[in-house]
## 1
Amino acid sequence: MPERYRVVANFGAAVAVLDEARKVHQAVPLTKLPQLVAGDQVECEQESGATSLRVVKLVDRDGVLSRIDHRGKPKPLAANVSHLAIVSASKPGIDPLLIDQFCIAAELAGIDAMVVINKSDLLDDEQHEQCLAMLEVYKAIGYPAVLVDTKSEGKLEPLITELAGKTVVLVGASGVGKSSIVQQLLPDLDVRVGAISAATGFGAHTTSVTFWYELGSGGSIIDSPGVRQFSVAHLSAQDVRRGYLELVDAAQMCKFSNCSHVVEPNCAVKAAVSAGSIAQWRYDNYRKLAEL
Ligand code: GDP
Ligand code: ZN
């Protein structure tokens, strides 16, 4: 009987897989299988006399994060991702338009989003209030949203709590603190990478290989500089309309089913913005991104 394993890293010719007892093995996929990525669940068999396992089946994926290659084809970066953790920070600057773009990209990929504002230590009282108000808007839409700081004791707790039971990939602009967050979440990173390297015989160059790591909370994180640099491909007006969840909700009451929420009469979205139940800045971002 084949057994179920988790792909924790892909080294090209072989992958590192984790068994249910958390032991790392080297495994070689059958050539008919698609390219495996970190987070994949697979079935493996032990062939007699072989030093590595044989991956015989890829279990259906749920929540695939892909990048578009130079031929315009999606190339999976990580699988079974439940949440995109969108990281932003006061330095280099909180960019709600970019956060919204990532929320839309997550929605299109069938992945939930969560909003993380880092470097709360750099905020003055007024900025702190503004951040909390912004996070409340995201929470009201249904996105988990937390304010954290990696430099002060205990200030990453809200994120750690939120990660329980989820599989996340951290994304966001350079310099917002993604590596710092990973270092805090996985203080034993070198040890883990060393264990994978020892079990598989592959020198695990952390700069190029994407790893799946289990967190203490029952959650997991899929990480590599490559996956952190996941960026938003061009979003069509239709994508944007689909990705603003609170607008989609309100739009059910618009007079016209194809309402753009700009010039049409009896528009429930515009009414909700006027009434304050949809944030003005989310609506403004929607118009910017949909080019309306
Ligand atoms: P990345 O490019 O998103 O991976 O960002 P890094 O983790 O490399 O962090 C960029 C810079 O921000 C580094 O100098 C960090 O020391 C700093 N940094 C990270 N988190 C915090 C924080 O919570 N507060 C402050 N003040 N600086 C931080
Ligand atoms: Zn409308």
## 2
Amino acid sequence: MGASRENIDLKRLPRHIAIIMDGNGRWAQEKGQDRLFGHFHGVESVRDIVEGCAELGIGYLTLYAFSTENWDRPAYEVTGLMELLVDTIRKEVETLNKNNIRLHVIGDMKMLPDYAQAELGEALELTASNTGLNLVMALSYSSRWELTEAVRNLARDVREGRLEPDAITQDTLHQYLSTRDFPDPELMIRTSGEYRISNFLLYQLAYAELYFTNVRWPDFRKKDLYEAILDFQGRERRFGKTSAQIQQDLTAPEGTF
Ligand code: IPE
Ligand code: IPE
Ligand code: MG
């Protein structure tokens, strides 16, 4: 039985979905093709999923496209990926604007080749006034990189007297993260049958529901997204409380607390 869009409760959508788009290389190799062939086809999935999220009215979609560790892959793959990235962004800006989608980027942009930085900067600017789906590309991103940056900037502010150590709260730390403008993901999807986080949003995923599927990223389509969302909607999110408390919260009239 395929998951269908009609079964999704639009009032209980995850506000933010984060996806580790994995399995491009294996998908290609299983077809006797080069890994880049898989990345190339992965773009089709990105299009479909972005469209699917926009249609549903999801607020934020973060896509893990390239990790800090991925720089250590063979040079031809890294170069191919960068070219694909720039090419795709150039081609898609118009569609993003048509669909009111705003592009954001998180990650160490300084590591990207100049032409990629320039192209990205332009796309960010051109979509900056869109108010629909927020599409966050995690590029040259890793959580440990992000946390190290945050600590470095925070330490600098303390040294320069802008911040009191005793005044540091979770909200303060949040302000130093590259995700400061986004709510935490509520649903995290990883494709291709790997059960790990691979340095993705370690802090922000604290209470995300995790969903793993064997589907390789180039095969992942809207119906797979719907299946993940339906699975999410069937879960009880307790945030450390008991099930009874959660049930009571759900039935209590507003303003009870
Ligand atoms: C995910 O697919 C895309 C990137 C990491 C850029 P992979 O390239 O990791 O594919 P597998 O995991 O080797 O199959
Ligand atoms: C995680 O996938 C990074 C991206 C999807 C961009 P990897 O394929 O790099 O992760 P590992 O190496 O399997 O943990
Ligand atoms: Mg992989």
## 3
Amino acid sequence: MPISCPEGPQRCAECAECVRQRLLHRPGIRSVVIHPNGSQARITLDYDTTLIALSELERDIRRNGGCFSPDWGHAVIPVEGMISSQSEQLIETVLRRIPGVMATASHASRLVRVEFDRRRCAVPEIIARLNELGYPVRPDSAKRFRSPGISAGVLEAHDGERGRRMIAVPRPSLVVRLLKWLAATPELALPLLGGLFLLLAFLIHSSNGSNWLRGAFLVFSYLCCSRYTGMDTLRSLRHMQFNIDVLMFIAAGGAISLGRHEEGALLLMLFGVGTAGENLAMDRARRAIHALAELAPETATVRDADGRERVVHVADLAIGDQVVIRPFDRMPADGEVISGASAVDQSPITGESMPVEKTVGLPLYAGTINGNGAMVMKVVRAAGETKLAKIIKLVEEAQTTKSPTQVLTDQVERFYVPLVFISTACLIVLPITLADGAWSVWFYRAMAFLTAASPCALAIGTPAAVLSGIARAARGGVLIKGGVHLENLGRVRAIAFDKTGTLTRGRAEVTNVTPIGSHSIEEILGLAAAVEQESTHPLAAAITAEAKARGCRVSVARDVQQTPGIGVTGVLSPGVYAGCSDPPDINVRALRVAVGRITPEHIARSPELKLAAERMEADGKTVVVVSVDLAPIGAIALADHPRERVREVLDELRRLGVRRTVMLTGDNARVAAAIAKQIGADEYFAELLPEDKVDRLRDLERRFGRTAMVGDGINDAPALATATVGIAMGGAGTDVALETADVALMADALEKLPEAIGLSRFSRRIILQNLCIALGVIAIMAPTAALGGATLGVAVVAHEGSTVLVVLNALRLLLYKPKPI
Ligand code: ADP
Ligand code: MG
């Protein structure tokens, strides 16, 4: 795929190498070759599409300074009709036959993720192929590809809910409800009906009734039971795919051909009921994500310039519209308060349990719930680009990636299924040819063996857990962008934290301003604020606020440049000098103002700076120097306090098995020591530039194994990309945090970290349990069946039972309750 670099050929070669190094570090990337060509470069990536989504790679390349040419597109398509994980392979194989398409299907989430070369094909072609295959795009989302808003089905669902609430209908009796439910779930109802026919056939048989009637009931039973599973199997066979479904039908056919008609029907029924049960259970996990989408209301009340109010569809909201928010309303869009105040429950997005006070100027997010105040908000983002829409998109994409365990089980299956076929064949042929065994006995045993040995539970156990884990995390305000990250997060041994804005509140306050030479405090602050007002760094906000509070006149600097980990510089034009006193010499020429960390040059130029800085730093304060044309004119000390309960959070992390907590900071060593002591971090590294943080992380990985990096994403993107798992905080507030990390904590609260790690560890435990259940049942039942110790019925019950059991086990993740901190 081609990428281009905005900075021209010279930089392109350098940055291409840098992109290559970063990409190589990601899990799932096998090789990266860059072919530079002027200011464009082509990049050939060999990567595992099941582990990483193209959009994630695109983000990676973009955050390393490159940009994608628009020839590659990607889409996540929700489909119907995927009733077993067997369909994954079928869809992937068939879609990959379209030139220029890479596809990953996920039965667990019923989503197909495609990445394609726009010059060679387009989404409609892919959708047409899916339709042809018998996996139509889910109608609720068909519109999504046309309108930018949240999927239409979601809106309909919302409508339905509202309708139910308004019309009070007497509750029907349990039987009626059960029948209605069954009618709405034919994939379960039909096999059950098939079971009823089977029972009738059995009764007729045992009372020596009409053979003709018995046969008819049996045929009905076969038809009902295999209506769904049979169609799926036929589809696989048509595309020459031999999988577990095919195995089951061979077993049933085998039983019937041996004259064990009832047993064959029983097998088909249990297979149908088991598959349906497994799907219904999976639906619970899928709905957990849909529930997120249902948060945003369908309509909004817009107040026009003339004060009149009208109700519009959220998709028709324009940026800048004024929307009336009444008490207890849900926010229809992302916006900013322009009048009124209220406490807003942001838990749907951030997972924070406490409502957040909102006043004029503060952001509001679609889907959050207003408290008892009334407000007017100005829309700042289009309906399709709200935080909520972005979260849903990221979560859906995450659910289509496979976790390392799943990749492993998939690989095992590839060898295992043919092995089962061969063993079954041996079981039929060998005893008969070598030991004169009876054909019917051994064929029957072989069929029971085949059923017991089918790895259905193995195939579904891991994806079900990953799906539930990611869904549960999203509901708690933690966005995990793929199964890989979910599994890695649960195995993290060391965690590195950025200091400013992560371990500390990132809301620094100016405590002292020490002038050097004859400059006044106002002068220093005024000059500093002129450049800092352009910076997003937490220290910048504090300095700008202090200058305003003291009434300094702050002018506008040009050519402002922020160097991560160092500081910010800018140029003030002649005549615009903004200090409160007006020294004539400064005001006649352009000034180069710099605010940032203390360097040896600063100290060489004014030795008194050293003493002043050391004194303040020993108290844990950050000291920055303001200089004009390289000459220091003053030092500003800022205090930024550790977040509340950081100590408890670190303790909880240790309890969860994290062996090392490390603080990384660009700040001075004295400040770092003071803060590390206050919060109880195991280790700290100070005076690091962003690239030094990368080296430290590599070192930690060598010493402890899997390492996570927690930052705010603003100036630690390289470190986040290097760590095994990059975790960004404050995803609701800044887009950078959402985009750069593998895991985003939507709330700006560190307490979510142990929760996320706890959940990941729990997910890993569930995955392991599921593997044990699946393999255990096979290990016990397959030999037993082969030796004639278990009938076909028992083998089917064990097989289907273990499949449903692993899915139910995975659903426990949805109920995960974190330990309160
Ligand atoms: P941390 O690693 O603690 O998050 P940073 O890497 O963001 O810190 O910054 C490191 C140091 O660089 C700060 O302590 C400060 O001295 C200086 N610095 C960076 N950006 C700015 C800025 N905008 N204004 C003043 N100082 C800055
Ligand atoms: Mg920082």
## 4
Amino acid sequence: MSMDPAVRAPRFAVIGAGMSGILAAIELRRRGFENFTVYEKAARLGGTWRENTYPGVACDVPSHVYSYSFELKPDWSERFSPGREILGYLETTAAKYGVDCHIRYEIEIERAEFQNGRWQLTGSDGLADEVDFVIAATGFLHHPARPDIAGLAGFDGACFHTAQWDHSVDLTGKRVGIVGTGSTATQIVPAIVDRVGALTLFQRTPQWIMPLPNAVYSDVEKRMYREKPELLKQSYVYWAERFNETFARAVIGDRDELQRIEDICRANLENSVADSKLRAKLTPNYRAACKRIIMSDGFYQAIQRPNVHLAVEGIEAVEAGGVLTDDGRRHALDVLILATGFDGHAFTRPMQVVGAGGRTLDQQWAEGNEAYRSVAVPGFPNFFLLVGPNSPIGNFSIIMISELQLGYVMQLIDAAVKHNVAVAPTFAATQRFNAALRTAMKSTVWASGCRSWYLDKNGNPAMWPWSFEQFEADMRRVDMNDFELK
Ligand code: NAP
């Protein structure tokens, strides 16, 4: 890398202005790096909270912990605040920390190529930039997965994916079908059930559902959190610990904790759904938390409403007037909503990333996405990922994960700047890390036999198979023996 800090300040590109991109920008500024641009392909910041505007969208991680640790918000409206409030929080935070003016909107970076020690970026609108460091904050639950169902294009009514909600379609009194029963669909069903005429939920696989009582924060509570920030911090720590002691342990092999979670979910089903036939349809035949566990307080109530039908037969085809299931039944619909999730393995794609020696990231990841500790890739110097492959995603606050990863990335950046070099993990260290990861993965619940977006094309869970404590420890200090400086 031909960068002499005495001569010029290093230049950075952050790709994506979602939660992680804003975080990276704030941290760059905090460390005195002002020469950076955040490239955002959309016209607004906010990532997933900008994209997802479906009815009922909220975060099922408590707002007091689904916050930047340095910008706790005393006046979250609810324990699990709605999506638009989270979007507002991200916008307010970006403005407060003076990073919004660093964002260039409606520019999609199409190609990043490492040449002569720097990254050449090209993008839409004729964008060309040359930077020392790239921080890819492109997210992972971003590219809608459209189901491969025969006849889908021939549906006569409105049809859209949940992440591309068509707000011009009035659902009032309509016959609405929803395909999918993930976290998204289970938020939508209670939110629209009162408005629609009839709702058919097409379920391929039943879900384990944890009861999750929401609570509205009163003005008194909000004032208390404002006046006593230490209580807000305590709430942050409390929720982080609760998740760590329960889900985080259960998913990586604590059988007792996993059983406890499964028992709670089973009791929730039994106590909430009166009809035994419906209960049977809603009972999963795989371990709780193998798929991402659903958190919901309203789904079971909504599914029992008289205007709701749970269709568990396979979808044969979509026809002009509705959905044909494999029992020969035609479900007449006006609106078809695809709650079919995302391609959680695209990461930086479709951006073309070309590393040292002309090797592309697509070539390197042809057999699977392998990074060093989720944040860096051998052969791609000074190129870092936030919430990259195998980020511990479970049900933990992804903001906390991203902050820890960024702290690690910043240590690498400091080393590169100090020594005027480009830094990348070695192939050997990356292979070692991924071999250990595959071994540890075998005892996790994600590998216990179910279909989920956690699994990559080879059937390997793209998760972090160790404890949160180990993740924290691994992110605390860089082992420079695992890196090459050139
Ligand atoms: P998802 O969990 O991947 O669920 C997709 C659903 O669509 C599944 O029920 C799946 O069935 C079904 N499906 C897919 N293709 C189908 C087909 N061809 N025919 C019939 N059914 C089909 O997607 P999601 O609900 O959008 O959630 C994705 C992730 O986003 C979540 O796991 C979570 O991490 C995140 N999220 C978080 C929140 C939050 O509050 N924090 C809210 C929403 C989403 P199978 O189960 O049989 O595959």
